[in-house]
């Protein structure tokens, strides 16, 4: 027997965390009955449906997308805006993005139907690095960069220390380009961190996700992840090492 949310994740419907949300909001049926209680265990012969669609074992698919700005990091958007899934019209499996990038943030995002990988890469205890390039208003001072490196107090919490580097500055335009690497995943975290130290973000891009980079890619490009890359991501999440 296995927990229901694990079975849903393994079938590629959603990450384990999202599967728990689907259960709690009444989207899941087991043997014809709606289940909303966490911790339910099911056996292989049990009939599980999500929104009326029976679970089926799908081929695991893995893609890396360089998300453009003004694209939603979701499977659907109630306002009809373009989503990251729209870049894969020929993929039959129900892939979904791991984590999110803001609507106006470009950069790397992984899409898959592998719930195990999604859980590994989004769980807060797994310290997967994400590197961003931010164009900010003003030129950050040494003290501001130090604050980012030691952690910034936001409305809800203090952020973990970030790796920060001032890449370039334009004193005439009073702007700068900052590289910032974090391993947390709070909504709008990078923008909020830079705004908190006095340097609002004009433009933001995620240029590295773990060891994956935007090299040879432009906004809108995508590619399948290689089996060795998937294995390395899982090992990195579990052990902190690729090899």
UniProtKB/TrEMBL annotation:
Enzyme Commission number(s) from the entry: 5.4.99.-
Record keyword Isomerase present: yes
Top-level EC class as recorded in UniProt: isomerase
CDD domains the UniProt entry points to: PseudoU_synth_RsuA_like, S4
Keyword terms, alphabetized: Isomerase, RNA-binding
Ranges for domain RNA-binding S4: 2-59
Gene Ontology terms, MF aspect: isomerase activity
One Pfam family it belongs to: S4
InterPro entries (UniProt xref): PsdUridine_s_RsuA/RluB/E/F_cat, PsdUridine_synth_cat_dom_sf, PsdUridine_synth_RsuA/RluA, PsdUridine_synth_RsuA/RluB/E/F, PsdUridine_synth_RsuA/RluB_CS, RsuA_PseudoU_synthase, S4_RNA-bd, S4_RNA-bd_sf
Family in the record: Belongs to the pseudouridine synthase RsuA family.
Protein name: Pseudouridine synthase
């Amino acid at each position: 027997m296995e927990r229901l949310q694990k079975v849903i994740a393994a079938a590629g419907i959603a990450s384990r965390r999202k599967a728990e949300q689907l259960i709690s909001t009444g989207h899941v049926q087991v043997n014809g009955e709606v289940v909303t209680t966490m911790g339910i265990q099911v056996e292989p012969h049990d009939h599980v449906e999500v929104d009326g669609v029976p679970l089926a074992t799908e081929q695991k698919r893995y893609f890396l997308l360089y998300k453009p700005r003004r694209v939603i990091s979701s499977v659907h958007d109630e306002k009809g805006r373009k989503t990251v899934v729209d870049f894969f019209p020929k993929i039959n499996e129900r892939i979904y993005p791991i984590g999110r990038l803001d609507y106006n943030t470009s950069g790397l995002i992984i899409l898959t139907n592998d719930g195990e990988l999604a859980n590994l890469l989004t769980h807060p205890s797994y310290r997967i690095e994400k590197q961003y390039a931010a164009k900010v208003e003003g030129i950050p001072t040494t003290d501001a960069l130090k604050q980012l490196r030691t952690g910034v107090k936001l409305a809800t919490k203090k952020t973990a220390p970030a790796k920060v580097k001032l890449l370039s500055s334009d004193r005439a335009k009073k702007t700068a380009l900052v590289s910032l690497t974090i391993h947390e995943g709070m909504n709008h975290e990078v923008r909020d961190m830079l705004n908190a130290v006095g340097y609002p973000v004009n433009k933001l891009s995620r240029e590295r996700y773990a060891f994956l980079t935007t090299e040879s890619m432009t906004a809108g490009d995508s590619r399948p992840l290689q089996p060795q890359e998937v294995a390395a991501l899982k090992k990195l999440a579990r052990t902190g090492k690729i090899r």
